Each structure stands twice: as C-alpha cells, then as structure tokens.
Amino acid sequence: MKLIRNLTAVATLIVLSASLVVAESDAHKSFDLLKGLEGNWAGKNQQGQPIQVTFRQTAGGSALMSEILGRGPENMITMFHMDGDRLLMTHYCGAGNQPRMKVISSDAKSVSFEFFDGTNIGPGDGHMQHVTFTQPDADHHVEEWVFLDHGKESREVFTLARVK
User: Fold this and answer.
1) Strand 50-58 to 98-106 pairing
2) For residue 64, what are the contacts with CB-CB under 8 A and spacing of at least 6?
3) pLDDT score at 11
4) Considering only CA atoms, which of 143, 81, 106, 90 is closest in space to residue 30?
5) How far apart are CA 59 and CA 65, in angstroms?
6) Looking at residue 15, what DSSP letter applies?
7) What's the rounded mean pLDDT across residues 69-76?
8) What is the pTM of this model?
9) Local structure of 122: helix, strand or coil
10) In this predicted structure, what is the pLDDT of residue 76?
C-alpha cells in the first residue's frame, strides 16, 4: 500500500513538472513571437488615421518595448517581459494609468492578453482591458485593443505594415 502511494506521488510530480515545462515553453514562444515584431511599423487605425508603432528589445533582451506614436500627447508605451513561467505586459496609457495584463491565449500567429491589475485605476475607471497582437506574416501585424470604461467596452484596431 505504501509503495502504491509513493508511486502515485512520483507520477503526480512528473505530470506537474511536465505541465510546468509546457507552460514555460508556451510563454517563451509567445515572447519570441512578440520579439519578432522588433522594428518600425506604419499603418492606420480603424478610422483611417495614420499610426506608427515601434518595437525594440531592451535590458539584454529580457524586455520588449512597444511605442505607439501618432496619437498626439497620448503616445503610449507597453513593456513586455517574462515573470517566471508567464509573459506579462504593462501598458503606460494615455489615460494616465498602467494596466498590467497576462497572456490568456496564444498560437503561432497571435498572442492575447487580459487585464489582471494595474496602478492609478480606481473602481470603474477606464483602462485597457484586453489586447491581441496578430502577425499573419513577417511584414504585417494587427493590434486590437479593448478599453473598458464603467462596464462599457470600446475597441481600437491598428493594421500595420513593416517599414523597410
């Protein structure tokens, strides 16, 4: 009986270890996908207004910075980084707050993040709630941002092409 308990404990430990390796691998793959966006991008938002986005690695490749330009005084920066076995982002928003998001889904061409906490955000205050980065090929990507304000969502979509 003791042998069965020990074998069960060992098997459980092996399964848990394997799932942590898979999770870490997926998070690193998502980070690598985003790092592939490094460079300058130009395009339009859904209203047809021009937008520029620049991605660059910093801190020895441990962080990726995205800067959204073309929104006047509301230029914004987003920082991506690993936190153990998960990929996080902090968005320094034109709304004056800093929502933090974690990956909720990813595949070979997209990564989606969802809000989990932030700074300078009071109950009901408007903040970025969700964002998806999709890269159909090496020279194009789409960013879909969702802003939540007192329970109401609004979307902003950027369609971008790599500047060569």
Assistant:
1) unpaired
2) 31, 34, 35, 37, 38, 55, 56, 57, 58, 79, 80, 81
3) 43
4) 106
5) 10
6) H
7) 74
8) 0.82
9) coil
10) 93
